[in-house]
Design goal:
Length: 275
């Protein structure tokens, strides 16, 4: 007798988004109240950080509800350029909703670095980075290095092959690390990267101001956008994320990796400051 076929697994039903935008916000507390009320009404959970320099968010919930919240935000011309990165999960990886006003949406403690007030450092699309890594140099023949701007415990979960890793424990240490390793970047094309783009955007702007003998880029959309557009080429491991999924694989699915206990402790202390 033939056994009945197993039922197909239910598709993941929770939409997770991450997004940031450096843009001048004159009244962050008023914006905080409006966004908090809207997210509560839609039953969303996650973290939204707002500062005078912009917005940084991680939200999860039913797909229609999450996209309705994003549409509300995009109706404000300041946020029309928001381009959330999406992934799906079976459960909501956040325990509550937090919408907070902070001095910076990603803390660097370097007041001269204000991406909302300066032109962006050149942004490199994922496909171009893959092509450069495939060929071993950029289009001008310069050697390409990837510079990881994340915390050391995140790098230990996964990183680009051969990436420069200065073992920083928090992003505010990045400027000091640059000064200690300037010679390491000389004569190269440097592509700074992080999880979703926010840290490497500030990092690239800082690098541009240091009169280095280097061409500087930021990886557009960070690791998560790279996974979405080109998969895991030239990347080993998974990408640590600051929610209950812990890490995503190159298919943007929750990974079965279990970060070390000390890494989880550091992540809990730092969340939701990194992205």
């Amino acid at each position: 007798m033939t056994s009945p076929a197993s039922p197909e697994p239910a598709p993941a039903s929770v939409l997770n988004i991450s997004c940031y935008l450096f843009v001048a916000i004159e009244a962050p507390h008023a914006l905080r109240d409006a966004l908090h009320e809207r997210a509560l009404a839609l039953g969303l959970r996650g973290t939204v950080l707002i500062a005078e320099e912009g917005i940084n968010l991680f939200l999860a919930g039913p797909g229609d509800a999450v996209r309705a919240w994003v549409d509300t935000l995009r109706a404000d011309p300041r946020f029309a350029a928001l381009a959330p990165k999406e992934s799906w999960s079976d459960t909501v990886p956040f325990r509550k909703l937090l919408v907070k006003v902070k001095p910076e949406i990603i803390r660097m403690n370097h007041p001269t670095i204000r991406p909302d007030q300066a032109p962006r450092a050149p942004a490199l699309p994922a496909a171009t980075l893959r092509r450069w890594l495939d060929q071993g140099h950029d289009d001008d023949g310069r050697p390409v290095v990837t510079l990881d701007t994340r915390n050391a415990f995140e790098v230990d979960v996964g990183a680009f092959d051969g990436a420069i890793d200065w073992r920083i424990t928090k992003f505010s240490e990045f400027p000091e690390a640059v000064q200690a390793h300037r010679a390491e970047l000389a004569g190269k094309t440097v592509v700074s990267y992080c999880t979703g783009g926010i840290r490497c955007e500030k990092a690239a702007l800082y690098l541009e101001q240091q009169d280095l003998d280097a061409k500087v880029y930021q990886l557009e959309g960070g690791i998560l956008k790279y996974f979405e557009e080109v998969g895991g080429a030239h990347y080993h491991g998974d990408c640590f994320v600051f929610d209950e999924r812990r890490a995503l694989d190159p298919a943007l699915a929750p990974s079965d990796v279990e970060p070390a206990a000390d890494a989880l402790g550091l992540a809990a202390a730092l969340a939701p400051k990194a992205a």
